Amino acid sequence: MIELVKQSKSQKVNTAETLYNVFSEEVNSGLERNPKCLPSKYFYDQKGDALFVKIMNLPEYYLTRSELEIFQHKTNQLINALELHPERYFELVELGAGDGLKTKELLKVLEHQNYKFDYLPIDISSNALNLLEDNLKQELPKVSVKTKQGDYFKVLDALKESKHPKIILFLGSNIGNMSDSAATKFMTKLSANLNPEDKLLLGVDLIKSKSVVLPAYNDSQGVTAAFNLNLLARINAELGADFNLNQFKHKPEYDENEGIAKSFIESCVNQIVTIKALGKSFKFLKGEKIHTEISRKYNDTLITEIIANANFSLDTKILDSKAYFADYILTRNA
Ligand code: AVJ
Questions:
Q1: Which atom of ligand 1 approaches the CA of 63 most closely?
Q2: Does the C-beta of 176 come closer than 6 Å to ligand 1?
Q3: Whole-number Å distance between alpha carbons of 187 and 303
Q4: Gap between the Cα atoms of 127 and 106, Å rounded
Q5: Does residue 230 have its Cβ closer than 6 Å to ligand 1?
Q6: Does the Cβ of 177 fall within 6 Å of ligand 1?
Q7: Whose CA is nearest to atom 2 of ligand 1?
Q8: Residues carrying CATH 3.40.50.150, the chain
Q9: Is any atom of ligand 1 closer than 6 Å to the C-beta of 103?
Q10: Domain 74-200+302-332, CATH class in plain words
C-alpha cells in the first residue's frame, strides 16, 4: 500500500486534482505578490478558446492575417527555405496547432506537390486535436495526420527516437507570451530535443508603432477585454471566488521602445475579493493593476539573443507585405 502511494507520487501524473492544485497555488502566489499578477496560460478554458478564435478574426488583430498571408502567398519560399524535397520523407510537427488555419495552406501545397510526410500536431488539449483531425479529414483527406496529445517536450523527446528529418512549427507569436529568459530556456530545450539538420519555423510578431500594436490588444468590440476578464470568471467558477467583473477593467499598454504589449486588469474601486478554495481574501485598491499577460514583439537582434545559447543557426526570414510579422527558419546545428 505504502509502495503504491510512493510510486504514484514519483510518477507525477497530471490528474485533475494536481492541475487544480497547481492552478490554485499559482493564483495564490500571483495575488500575494506586489504588484499582483496572474499567469496568461489560464486564459484558455473553453470560453477563453472561443474568445481567442474571435480575437483572431478582429479587424485590429493583424497578427493572424499577416502570418496567414505568408502561408498563402509565400508557400514556395517557405518550402525552399525548409529544404524540403518531394521524395525525402519528413515529419511536420506543430507545437500548439490550434485550428490549423495557417498550416492548412502549407499542407495543401505539400499534398498537391506529392511530398511524403506525416503531420503531427501536438497540443495539451485533446479536444482541440480532435476538432483539427476531423477538419483535416474533410478538407485534406490525403494528408496523414497523427495527433499527439501532451506536453511539447515529452512528445518531442519520444519523437527524437525516429531519425527522420523533422520540421517544427511554432507559429502565431506564441513564444511572445514568454519572458526573454523563459524564451531562451525554451529554445535551448527545444534544440536539445531535435536532431542535427532538423528545422524550426518560428512565427513572431515584429516591433512596430504603438498605433498598430495597441489596438490589437484593445479592440473596439471589447473581445480582448472579455478574454482578459475571463481569467477572473474562471477563478470565480473553479476556485469559488467572488470577483465582481463590473468592478474590474481591461487595461493594455505598449511601449514601442521596449516592444512588449502588456495586459492588465485594473480595479475600479477599493474592494475585497474572497477565494473559497484558498480560504482567504485579497484587497484591491482603486486603480491597482493585476498583470495578466506579456506579448513580446521582436526584431533580428532580439531573436539572435534568444537563440544565442541554443544550438540553432538562423537561416531565413520571410515577411508579409506590410512587414508586420516574420517567419524565421532556424536549423539545429550538428
Ligand atoms: C496567442 C499569445 C499569440 O499574445 O497576441 C491575443 C494571445 N492575448 N490577445 C498574443 C492574445 C490577447 C496572443 N498569442
A1: 5
A2: yes
A3: 10
A4: 23
A5: no
A6: yes
A7: 174
A8: 74-200+302-332
A9: no
A10: alpha beta
- Which residue of 262, 264, 293 sits with most ligand 1 atoms within 8 Å of its CB, as the best mutation to test the pocket? 293
**Where are the extended beta strands (E) located within the chain?**
36-37, 90-95, 117-123, 144-145, 148-149, 166-170, 199-205, 248-255, 260-267, 271-275, 280-284, 289-296, 312-319, 325-332
Task: Per-residue pLDDT tens, the chain, 334 aa: give them.
Answer: 344 444 444 455 678 888 889 999 999 999 999 999 999 999 988 899 899 999 999 999 999 999 999 999 999 999 999 999 999 999 999 999 888 999 999 999 999 999 999 999 999 888 889 999 999 999 999 999 999 998 899 999 999 888 899 999 999 999 999 999 999 999 999 999 999 999 999 999 999 999 999 999 999 999 999 999 999 999 999 999 999 999 999 999 999 999 999 999 999 999 999 999 999 999 999 999 999 999 999 999 999 999 998 999 999 999 999 999 999 999 999 9
Q: Helix, strand, or coil here: 241?
A: strand
Most ligand 1 atoms within 8 A of CB, residue of 52, 175, 296, 325 to mutate? 52
CA dihedral 119, 125, 130, 132 (to 10 degrees): -50
In sign, the C-alpha dihedral spanning 257, 261, 263, 266 is: positive
Q: In angstroms, what is the span from residue 295 Cα to ligand 1's centroid? A: 6
User: Which atom of ligand 1 is nearest the CA belonging to 177?
Assistant: 2
* Alpha carbon distance 103, 63 (integer Å): 15
Put simply, whether the predicted model's pTM sits higher than 0.90 gets the answer: yes
Q: Do the beta carbons of residue 299 and residue 207 sit within 8 Å?
A: yes
CA distance 25 to 190: 27
Ligand 1 atom nearest to 261, measured from its CA: 4
* Cα gap 106→43, rounded to integer Å: 28
